[in-house]
Amino acid sequence: MNEKKIREILRKYYALDMHYEDGRILGSMYTSIPPIVVEIFQKFYQANLGNESLYPGTKQLERKVVKYLFRLASAQGKGFYGHILSGGTEANIVALWAARNFGYKRILATADAHFSIRKAANLLNIPLVEVKMDKGKMNTEDLERKLSDGDAIVATAGTTPLGLVDPIEDIGKICLDHDCFLHVDAAFGGFVLPFLKELGYIKVKFGFDIPAVRTVTIDPHKMGMAPYPAGSLLSRGNIFEKITTDAPYLLKEKNYTLLGTRQSGSVAASYSAILYFGWAGYRRIVKKCMENTLYGKKRFEEEGYEILVEPEMNILNIKFQNVKKIKRELIKRGWGVSINPSYSSMRIVFMPHVTTSVVENLLRDLKNIEKS
Ligand SMILES: Cc1ncc(COP(=O)(O)O)c(C=O)c1O
């Protein structure tokens, strides 16, 4: 078949998908990325760090990206390790897989921890103990009651439903009194919190500047403006040794992560995004996203809607009596919506494509739904 015909066929399917540029995707943690980053992704599309000896150039780029992520996670000095993985799910699974292999026997997390934690507990066959929350954040008294030596705790810096930060410093202090493994899931918050701190919006610590923190997940393919698959797991000490598997047919004869073959064009692309935006560029993006979040909050309130919780990051939740009906109606009108059924709220992730005019379009459609 000639190229023109192939393009024609594929175009039809492309048109069926939603795209960030259309300004209709409200609940996703991804966004469209600059053409140079896409170009680099294509250029390196063959790279596979599952067999890293064939790709020493991309391996060097992985180290450079990881070094940048160390800065985001406040890792200072030597003794830190990291890999670019396929996303937050793989990173969380790998952290808890290593914890299990160190001998930790249970996972403690809140109901708002990402579902990959439940997946990890199921895969690793370790019990998951739910810690209560206070308004969407881990309740440290309940943690203290339930914690035993030999537990792994998952704290979240930027929860998926509400975008809140668990009290990680307090959790870290509690952890120091026990033999436990503290994993921080900053898949979303890792590329947001350091900049929100510099901008004066928030004051929390979430990374290796908290002594008990052992591992941190940060995803370049969320607020790092990298193409998927690009997550990462960073660790104090080399936890990857605990999950290394013999792989005799590979050049290095070892495999250090969960996946075998892994698309690593995204590693080169992540580095190109880091070069393209720079620290100041990421801070500008975070500033704009936060301003748009607060604009959304103000406009929804002005129109008589209730905001569920004061946003700490660029995630806003609007309460609805019948949130499932709102979801159905918005989908009919072409929106890519996300809801939190347990909070009866609609969740908007203010990624760069969710602008003030997207908010106004959404409000207009919500008014029409009310009238219908
Ligand atoms: C806090 C958090 N952790 C982990 C994940 C999973 O990331 P991924 O979809 O890249 O596997 C998400 C995804 O939204 C998340 O919000």
Instruction: Calculate the mean pLDDT score and round it.
Output: 97
The H-and-E topology, N to C, reads as HHHEHEHEEEHEHEHEEEEHEEHEEH
Would you tell me the structural class of the helices and strands? alpha/beta
CATH fold topology of the largest domain = Aspartate Aminotransferase, domain 2
Number of β-strand runs: 15
Number of helices: 11
Tags for this entry?
Aspartate Aminotransferase, domain 1, Aspartate Aminotransferase, domain 2, four-stranded antiparallel beta sheet, 11 helices, binds pyridoxal-5'-phosphate, seven-stranded mixed beta sheet, 2 domains, alpha/beta, 372 residues
Can you describe this structure?
The mean pLDDT is 97. The protein has 2 domains: 3-34 and 278-371, Aspartate Aminotransferase, domain 1; 35-274, Aspartate Aminotransferase, domain 2, CATH 3.40.640. The chain is globular and about 60 Å long. Helix 2 packs antiparallel against helix 9 (265-302) and helix 3 runs parallel beside helix 9. It has helices at residues 3-16, 35-43, 56-72, 88-102, 115-124, 140-146, 168-176, 193-198, 265-302, 323-332, 356-371; strands spanning 80-85, 106-110, 128-131, 133-134, 137-138, 151-156, 180-185, 213-217, 231-236, 245-246, 254-255, 306-307, 315-319, 339-340, 345-349. It has 11 helices and 15 strands. The strands form 4 sheets. A 7-stranded mixed sheet has the order 1-9-8-7-6-2-3, with helices on both faces. A 4-stranded antiparallel sheet has the order 12-13-15-14, covered by helices on one side. The chain has a two-stranded antiparallel sheet with strand order 4-5. With 372 residues, the protein is α/β, with parallel strands linked by helices. Pyridoxal-5'-phosphate is lined by residues 29, 87-89, 92, 114, 116, 156, 158, 160, 185, 187-188, 219, 231. Pyridoxal-5'-phosphate binds next to helix 4.
